Amino acid sequence: MRGVRTFAPSRRTVLAAGLAAAVAPGVRAKESRTLTVAAFPLVDQIVKDAIPQWQQRHPDVAINVVMRQYEDHHTAMTTALSTAVYLPDVMALEASYVGKFSDGGGLSDLLQPRYGIGRYRDRFVAYAYDQAINRKGQMVAAPTDIGPGTMLYRKDLLDRAGLRDSDLQPSWDAYVDCGIKIKKATGANLIGNVKTLKDLMIRGGLKKGQGIYFDADSNVLVDSPRFQRAFELALRVRRNQLEGRLETWSNEWAEAFRRGATATELGGSWMVGQLANWVAPKTAGLWRAAQLPESTWVSYGGTYYAIPRDSDPDKKALAWELIEMMTLDPSRQLAALRTQDAFPALLAAQDAPMIDEPQPFLGGQRARVLWREAARHITATAVHKQAKFAEDAVNAELDSVLDDGKDIKQALADAARLLELRARR
Amino acid sequence: MKLPPFLRLSPKWAPYVFISPFLLLFAVFGIFPLCFSLYLAFQSWEPTGGLKAMEYVGLSNFTFALKDAWFWKALRNTLWLAVASGVPQHLVALPLAAFIHTSFKRLRDGVIAVYFLPYITSTVAIAIMFNALFSQDYGMINAALAQVFGMEHIDWLHDVAHVKPAIAFIVFWRYVGFNTVLYLAAMQTIPGELYEAATLDGASRWRQFFHITLPSIKPMIFFGVTLSVIGGLQLFEEPFILTGGKGGLQQSAMTSAVYLFREAFDFNDFGGASAMSWLLFVVVALLTWLTNLAFRTRRGKQ
């Protein structure tokens, strides 16, 4: 359940998409043309917001944004790529799907001279750029927004427990120690769902180009100290009853935030937008952001734009022009930040004054500065074809450790065996 | 006005023309997917690479599926659910049909309609309703259990030990009416004289049920059980919707059909999923054949 949902909020983070209108090939000069952008919620809005600017440049080219729900969108894109029919001119992809699609060859290599994204390399935050490069060295998508990992905490609850954010940060163990004190002083849980803690921990300390579950040669990395420690700490959280045992994104999970029953949350920077917009808007001013414990620099979600290899060749130049506008124009990147909390992948936008503005939901804290710092520490993580299965398999083993008392070593060995069978499929 | 001769349909061809809509649709939605999945079962395919990205890999999809622990786990879940939902369906439907057959005269059609209603209701509506009924904090099922037995609230749909029984119950509830209608239809064909004669001979209603009703409707039982075996092994909608398309915590409600859907669309392995679907077909065929065998031998003994 949780796997995909983890990234659900990045729908909000992300940018736009479009629709398709059949245009007779070759009819250029007179008849108006349409550029189709396929996107998922909130990205569609970001693209729609850009239409006036686009129309100034190309009054004769309409933009049609086709929006589908997050999972439906990615299923539809898989189907469109597999059959090469009804392909959009521009497709928005969530970061994890970029990895999944990158080695298939269905997306155009943006390093080709006709696009030439290579010359803009220094303008993007490094990890977001590197993340879209596949094993053959092709770059299949352009980054538009990112999700630097962050820790959010309820300042009022920490105050009541006599703690400060610096107490949470030295290590993951210190974070859990604080959880025990918070529980004692306030009754609040440290975290809504302990899998979130595990997810952040296993993303920490990866070498460049290494994946979470597999290395570059498809060797399974699950049976390792990194996972062992995440599992042990998750078990400690469960045993001390510091988690709400709530399914992420469920009503109960959101309700716990509204009632102040959850003291911290870990995730991408977009989580602030989620809390502020719908999860717990009334808790505005009580939250603060901090870097993740143990200086864990991780990326959690993000959005890219891609051009399908087999889309209408006559419109590829226009498609690329739209992507350039969305990803390289600081005003568009900042508009997305302002309206949808999509943290820019463009460095120029990250250096804009808006980044230094205080955020009312975080009690006036200038938290975007933290996320900018985090973004520059993050390194690209390779996404293996089987990453999604791996996430499910690891979650299942964690559940048996937490619920049924299964031995951690055994659980990780079992997960590794499942993954080894698929690693090279 | 007469049509020119070349537009007239000769009687020789007319039947084929009239039957062609079905054949065309069947070819597109029946035969083609069947052949395509058989073809895919021998290919490795990264779907986002387009149709050209297929690569022949021989039997390796099948060997992978047979070695995959989740494939066996899903098959065990499927068999568990098929038995737990299928057996009670028939054990309840048989006496229920006999009861309706003998005890209702004018009201009968109305009573049957009520039992049949779940069968024709949309699965999504059923799933939403049971989601509410099974809810841990506010669900009526927990409320009733707490009231009557003083039981603690159970997290039916997210608890490894309870999600399977919950789904089996829904499947049972949904199909028991269908089976009742089958048996009722069969019972209506039994000549009334048999019962009259038995009554004259002093046979109780109990004996009449076991010695007249049951043997007479045995072909229908065979039919009903076969449908349950096939339907049970292909169970997809209920577990898929109730577990949000993922198969539940620790895959405890992931049936074979749910798994092979996920293998294709979540894990992008269409070759492996196709191989699994053909392995599932073998299991379905085998169990159907065994069902057939079981009913035949018994008939032979009589």
CATH topology term of the largest domain in chain A: D-Maltodextrin-Binding Protein, domain 2
> What is the terminal-to-terminal distance of chain A?
24 Å
Given the helix and strand composition of chain A, which structural class is it? alpha+beta
SSE pattern of chain A, N- to C-terminal:
HHEHEHEHHEHHHHHHEHEEHHEHHHH
User: What overall geometry of chain B do the principal axes of the alpha carbons give?
Assistant: globular
> For the record, what CATH class of the largest domain in chain B applies?
Mainly Alpha
Overall average pLDDT of chain A = 90
In CATH, what is the homologous superfamily of the largest domain in chain B?
MetI-like
Count of DSSP H/I helices of chain A: 19
Largest sheet of chain A: 8 strands, mixed
Question: Would you kindly provide a written description of the structure presented here, covering whatever features stand out?
Answer:
Chain A folds into 2 domains: 2-147 and 300-358, 3-Layer(aba) Sandwich (D-Maltodextrin-Binding Protein, domain 2), CATH 3.40.190.10; 148-299 and 381-422, Periplasmic binding protein-like II (D-Maltodextrin-Binding Protein, domain 2, 3-Layer(aba) Sandwich). Helix content of chain A is 45%, strand content 12%. Chain A has 19 helices and 8 strands. Chain A has helices spanning 2-6, 10-13, 43-57, 70-83, 95-102, 126-131, 155-160, 165-168, 172-186, 194-203, 225-239, 251-258, 271-279, 316-328, 330-340, 347-350, 367-377, 387-404, 408-422; strands at residues 33-39, 61-67, 90-94, 142-154, 264-268, 287-290, 299-306, 343-344. In chain A, strands 1, 2, 3, 4, 5, 6, 7 and 8 form an 8-stranded mixed β-sheet that branches. In chain A, strand 1 (33-39), helix 3 and strand 2 (61-67) form a beta-alpha-beta unit. The radius of gyration of chain A is 22 Å and the shape is globular. Chain A starts with a helix and ends with a helix. In chain A, 53% of the residues are buried. The model of chain A is unreliable at 1-30 (pLDDT under 50). With 302 residues, chain B is an all-alpha fold. Chain B has 2 domains: 5-56, no CATH class; 60-301, MetI-like (MetI-like fold), CATH 1.10.3720. Helix content of chain B is 71%, strand content 1%. Chain B has 13 helices and 2 strands; from the N terminus they run H-E-E-H-H-H-H-H-H-H-H-H-H-H-H. In chain B, strands 1-2 form a two-stranded antiparallel sheet. In chain B, helix 2 (60-67) packs across helix 13 (270-301). The relative contact order of chain B is 0.13. The mean pLDDT of chain B is 90. The interface between A and B is medium-sized, with 38 and 30 residues.
